[in-house]
Amino acid sequence: MKFRTAGIGALTLATTVAAVTAAAALEQHPLTRSDSSSHSSFHAPSALVLTVNNGASASASAPQRAVTLTCGSYTPGGTHPQPAAACDALQQADGRLSGLRDSGRSCTLDLRPVTVTLQGAWQGRRVNEERSFPNDCVKGAFGPLTEF
């Protein structure tokens, strides 16, 4: 009987430790509700790094600028100059650079390509993308996410 009691005590202790650990993790990184027109679900906060490079691909040169962006928490943040607007733009683009839409800004036809990269986690999904633009003006025409 002592063995059975010890086993139940160990199981209870393990369950309690797991519950306390999970509660502590949620306190440090609370789940936030993310509503979209198609469905509702819970996601951990998103943490991203954006870079801009001169050239037609990210591998063509070293990053010229880099910023961080956190979304999905109570207050968007990071080193991005417009974190709230950037998070809204990324939400509308379903977390993808390819989902960004051109605002219709008029730009010159200068060919000085720049590439933006997006790496990190977006609503529980790993993201690693790059998108090239003919020049800085066109890059900026795709909204606040790419304006840094």
Q: What general form does the structure show?
A: globular
Mean pLDDT: 78
Spatial arrangement of strands, main beta sheet:
4-3-5-6
Q: What's the name of the CATH homologous superfamily of the largest domain?
A: Subtilisin inhibitor-like
Helix- and strand-based class?
alpha+beta
- Proportion of beta-strand residues: 25-35%
Order of helices and strands: HEEEEHEEH
Q: How many extended strands?
A: 6
**Please, how many helices?**
3
Domain Subtilisin inhibitor: 44-135
Signal peptide: 1-22
Main location: secreted
Keywords: Disulfide bond, Protease inhibitor, Secreted, Serine protease inhibitor, Signal
What would you say this structure looks like, in words?
The protein is an alpha+beta fold and 148 residues long. It contains three helices and six strands; from the N terminus they run αββββαββα. It has a four-stranded antiparallel β-sheet with strand order 4-3-5-6. A two-stranded antiparallel ribbon has the order 1-2. Strand 1 and strand 2 form a beta hairpin. The chain is globular and about 45 Å long. The relative contact order is 0.17. Residues 3-41 have low confidence and may be disordered.
